[in-house]
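Re-run with default settings, no changes from the original entry. Doing this only to confirm the output is reproducible before filing.
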Amino acid sequence: MTANNEKWVMKWFERRMWDCTPTSVRGQAIVLYLPFSTDIEVLKRCANVLSDEERQRAELFKTDDGKRRFIQRRAFRRYCAFLADDTNQDLSQVQFSETDKGRPFLTDRNNLSFSFSSCSSGCLGAWSSSHAIGVDIEDQRQNIEAIELAQEFFSNAEAVKLEKLETVERVRTFLRYWSLKEAALKSIGEGLPFGMDAFEFQLDPDVRIVRAPTDPSRFSAHLVSVPKTTAALVVSEFSVF
């Protein structure tokens, strides 16, 4: 039953997900997107490849949506590890650990860099065997106090740029900055407490990092195309391990 269930889950992921890796980084990283499902059979099957601890965590969510997304995120994380690692390990046997900053890595193989992110509609999974990476995905929202948030968390140049834009374009640009910054922080093994202004971005004519905690030329930044979301990938030459 377990083997049949794992095959079912893997085939479902294979049909459901799509490869959204930016063309310019193929060979350096892989980025996959999985739209969430509300199908009860999918949730049951995905839950069966999780650990007891993960299933217990799923039960702590106060909403069905939160539980549904958590189960699929964790099952998809295992599937990404299966694709990244050539050992053909069963999904239920995949073991992730986390750094003290929350960065996931395979317990028995720490030479692969992983990054994951989710929004209300789906989740991103990414990995690289040669570079440190970070991904982020955000819902496309309109009710954002973009100027106020930018003045608090972004560089002065980024905040000034946002102030000059009309409302719709301002929110769109704000989300691009935010997603790129979260991805960049993940690429160095850090989180939001490190400071979103640690990285400064230029969006036009091409996305690039103009300021970073270390040499900006050793990073590449990319917007990831996923419908109805804002998503980003940052690739770093540095290793986080």
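The longest helix spans residues 64-84. The two ends are 37 Å apart (CA to CA).
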